[in-house]
Specification:
The protein is an all-alpha fold. Helices cover 77% and strands 0% of the residues. It is built from seven helices and no strands.
Length: 166
């Protein structure tokens, strides 16, 4: 059992560390949190029901990160939404509406990558797909988002022009 656990940790260290490094913006803190993640995984290993090891480890890492944030340590800022920070309120509203109109799997992929900052490999581990399937899914989700946004955008431009003329 110990050898299998050690192999799993060696195989997934870079995934967990990379996730934590992006979220903390601090390599030293990320290493510390990765060690805490694997410590908690060791304690919880007997309760693990199998399945995707990367998804299980990333879930533990996310909880470690939440605990760290509760202790008051600053984490690297992530964008709150998919829109441009300089976008007008009307454009932000349209982005939120278009995102909400997408099918749940496409919305999930876009949020995991663009809002939460996960890599394609991490998203694959979370949703139980290969990295190639995630890349394809994100490409399709972006195409669907773009198509819906372009359909909704002329209304935004008209609204913005009316607001600016008032």
């Amino acid at each position: 059992m110990a050898a299998g656990l050690e192999e799993m940790f060696r195989a997934h260290w870079s995934l967990v560390y990379g996730f934590l490094a992006r979220r903390t913006g601090n390599p030293t803190l990320a290493e510390e949190l990765a060690q805490e993640t694997f410590y908690r995984a060791t304690r919880a290993f007997l309760g693990w029901r199998g399945g995707s090891a990367p998804a299980w480890l990333l879930a533990i890492a996310r909880h470690v990160l939440i605990d760290e944030a509760r202790r008051g340590r600053r984490l690297a800022p992530l964008p709150e939404a998919l829109e441009d920070p300089g976008a007008s309120p009307a454009q932000r509203l349209v982005v939120d509406e278009v995102l909400g109109a997408l099918p749940a799997p496409q919305r999930l992929l876009l949020e995991l990558v663009y809002v939460f900052g996960y890599s394609h490999a991490e998203v694959g581990a979370i949703v139980g797909s290969s990295e190639a399937a995630v890349k394809t899914g994100i490409w399709r989700a972006r195409a669907a988002f773009r198509q819906e946004y372009e359909r909704a955008e002329p209304a935004v431009e008209v609204d913005v022009l009316v607001e600016e003329s008032l």
